[in-house]
Amino acid sequence: MFTTGAGLAVLTAALMGLVVGVAVVAQTIYAATMDHIREYGTLKAIGATNRHLYRVLIEQAVWSAVLGYGFAMFLAHFIVQGSEKGGALILVPLPMKIGMLFLAVFMCIVAALVSINKVTHIDPAMVFKG
Amino acid sequence: MTPFAPNPPIPYPSPEIPVIRARALSKIYREGATELRALSSVDLDIFSGQLTLLMGPSGSGKTTLLSILGCILRASEGCLELLGEDVTSLPEKELPRVRRLVIGFVFQGFNLFPTLTALENVELALDVRGSRGKLARLRAEELLHEVGLQDRKHAFPADLSGGQKQRVAIARALAGDPPILLADEPTAALDSTSGRAVIELLQRLAYHHRRAVVMVTHDPRVLSYGDRILHLEDGRLIREENPRHSIAAAHHFPAAQPSPNFSENFPVGS
What we know:
The structure holds two protein chains of two kinds. Chain A is an all-alpha fold. Chain A has one domain (19-128). Chain A is built from four helices and no strands. In chain A, α1 (6-35) packs parallel to α4 (94-120). The termini of chain A are far apart. Chain B is of the alpha/beta class. Chain B has one domain (20-259): Rossmann fold, CATH 3.40.50.300. At the A-B interface, α2 of A face α1, α2, β6 and α3 of B.
């Protein structure tokens, strides 16, 4: 993997993709949370616990991960097929596919932490303000 | 079993015992060195089966009082008992449970979830209370039927009129079958016909279901519906009226003729 330097380049690109992915997903989930902040406030006012709200956010994060993973695997399938015709064969074995799914879910849950922190501190009294 | 023990049913108190009992409630907002006293030594007893109106000018402390009664805000001083239990001493993390089990909220701006149908909005409130699946759906349908909206259950809030939205919000507030309903200016954003339907519905919930309904309002049209009117000014409870005695019987809503069957007063499209 590290003989030619190509492996290192791919690994670096993958790590950067992971970091950028976490940032993008975090930003997206945070923006969605802020858009619905009043609704989270309403849920708190009617008695939802923070745990209930975490469940909602983590569910969203997991769905984002699963949908993103599905789309990525769909693209990867064609790229792998194309690579068979080219010079450099790309291998995506099943354990790697499974590992990627877990990584994507983990990444999205980490990304949701910022939003979780936000909803934890929502003041339910906001529902009575204009 | 105490009223807030984890397992319902919540006992409905006898008419002699106040559902809400507040003593010397005060609320002081502090920001740096500045202090704002929003409520000062409010004493209050609210009984089940009554529609109580909270009135007063802007900034008089009505919404602050409602928020404290609803365990959304904590009083700075004083004591609040709900169903005979002192909630001022409960830890913060216990308050959502009190709100879930004892209180239903109706908001001026409806606060419905725009991406959910009327039925799903009510189901969400049941979900918060741990009720899911087919039983929750049946209960949500029952609640929408109770507010006269069974035929609009699949409509999204954007497709409902103001009055219909408020009735969905009331159905949602009833999800936990709470003995206390707190409403923050529920008729303010409504025309007179829809406003009348909403206030009559709240009155029915107080009378027929023995709930304590407390409603903040600026709306002079609803005065004659209240059993008690509590006037707040500068954070103090300055006066109490019984509109049955002090206000002429004529309602201020046009053609208001409260019917024993209140659902007849829900005009289509309200």
